[in-house]
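Our collaborator T.R. sent over the components below with a one-line note: 'Predict the complex.' Nothing else. No constraints on interfaces, no templates requested, no preferences about which chain binds where. So this is a plain run: every listed entity goes in together, and whatever single assembly comes back becomes the starting point for the next discussion.
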Amino acid sequence: MKLFRIISILFFVLCLVGSDAIAQTDSTAVADSLLLRQLQRSMQQAPSLIQPQLAPRAALSMNPDVSAIGDFRSSYTSLGKRKIETYLNELEFQVASVVDPYARAEFLFSFGKDLNTGELGIELEVATLTSLSLPYQLQLTLGKFKPVFGKVNILHPHYFSFIDFPKVINNYFDSEGMFMEGASVSWLVPNPYDFYQELTFEVGRVGSEPNASLVPGEDNQLLYVGHLKNFFDLSQNSTLEIGFSGLNGPNRLGFSTSVGGIDLTYKWKPLRYNVLKSFTWQSELLFADMRLSDMEIVRTYGGFSLVEYQFERRWFLGARYDFSGFPEDGSRKEQAASLLLRFQPTEFQILALEYQYTNRNYDRNFSQVVLRAIFGIGTHAAHKY
Amino acid sequence: MSSSGLGQLKVVTTLPDLESIAKLIGGGQVDVFSIATGFQNPHFVDPKPSYILKLSRADVFVTVGLDLEIGWVPPLLNSARNSRILKGGEGYIDASVNVPLLQVPTSASRAQGDIHIYGNPHYWLDPMNGKIIAGNILEMFVRLDPDHRSIYESNLKKFDETLDAKIKVWTAQMLPFKGTKIIAYHNEWPYFEQRFGLQIVDFLEPKPGIPPTPSQLLKVINEMKRDQIKIIIVSPYFTTESADLVARNTGGKVVTLATSVAADEQIKTYFDLFDYNISQLLQALR
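Returned assembly:
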């Protein structure tokens, strides 16, 4: 009996809903028919190419820009027992976005293999908060970043034209340069000649990985970095940049290391055919004073000079000469000559072949040939000039 | 009011077309600078630090938008230390607002080449869209500098009237050639094509941003022979080697059209841009 009552109530409710739905369907059908006729009329009137418009035209989601860049390498080295290597050098995963009207943030993770141990590791290379609207032409960056020392150290390997960083960067800092954790303040310096001059001052500690010249330190001794960038438009097609860098920070012996640097970059690129031809000449010179004890300071220097010529839309040729000491050992020196051929089918893929001959005064000389493939997906923030 | 304190609004635009329109609307009340030149590929402009200086002092920044300048505007704006001209700021103008867009993709993949997910961004090549751009610029000028509203509005009226009169002339000149099939190097002419009744049937690039390949050129040669197509249009920043090759094999003509103001010495204003292009096309079509 109870079951019959429930079924009756359900039937009654369904009838009510059904009649409402039928009535609604009738009115909806009329409206749909009108809408359909309107649409047909507007489609007949509209030019065939016009597509439905997406509004607004700004980002359609609040998702940050996300990109992944692979760096695969194969190499042959004339020295050693294991002459041939083939490995994924790095997978760089980047997330970047504006945080709010006042700042933007960037995170960069690197997944890479240690060639000595064969183990895969993950490192947070960059995590920064950068201001967008400080007064007096100032910009503040907090977090972990590559300090502004010279032109090459600030780059990530995929953006440097040659496969390896110059020997001087490798010997003075690390194979991918130097990282630091701290604060960076830069200022657009007003000047009577109205050229671009930017002064940067950074303070903090060397990033988690100590390098040949610097360590995070155990006491209150911090790393200080300064850079003055001067940029000139020589003509519509050519530019010149001259920079001066300096740093001081703790070294692994409990004393301090000071490094000074000068960088010079000349770029030529015809405006009209700016994707077809270009030429770059870049040089850096570094001087290091590394204190090993109360009595002993090792003074060394190193540098590089490179040229790169784009001879076709997708093809580049490069040559580089390196010379470098070692900050802790004034007697050791090395030189290297490199040749590079790069093929860049699109902005998202680079294939490069590099030959390098290295001459050392403390060990045997050797040759190396490296093939590299860089491939990126997603939205990677555009690089600075 | 203006950052300069001299009463003039400092305006930075990405392209010279926007610069020209901003000057025509702003008159003597604005000081306008364009980052790109007229003969430069607007997809690939180097974000030189000297542009950061200009942007750091700007009251207004006008961009084409639709990701046309995605490779060079973000690093400039991020370093400009000027919140007024950042996206959402009081001096940021996306000139594409209210423009009826063409070729808005329903799906997007880089396998399709350099496609623009919001639609084809070369909309300033339809002079009717110039009126929409001018309206967007006027709105910003009036908001930032209400004291000179009447001057801006009067300039806009003059701009619209001149453009309307010229559009009538241009469309009349092109009318006899309505439906003429042509080939283009890159997919940057749909707005121009639609306005002036042309029919672009193929491109020398197999996909947007991918340089011409032998198989694509052969395909175009066959199409031109089959359909009696006589015109190949290229932009000033592409070399004409591929177009010349196709023209030699088909008896066609290569016409270099201006994609922007100042692409040629004769093109000093937004009006001149269409005067020049229509005249070049008419010479080739007759």
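Summary for T.R.: Confidence is low (pLDDT under 50) at residues 6-59 of chain A.
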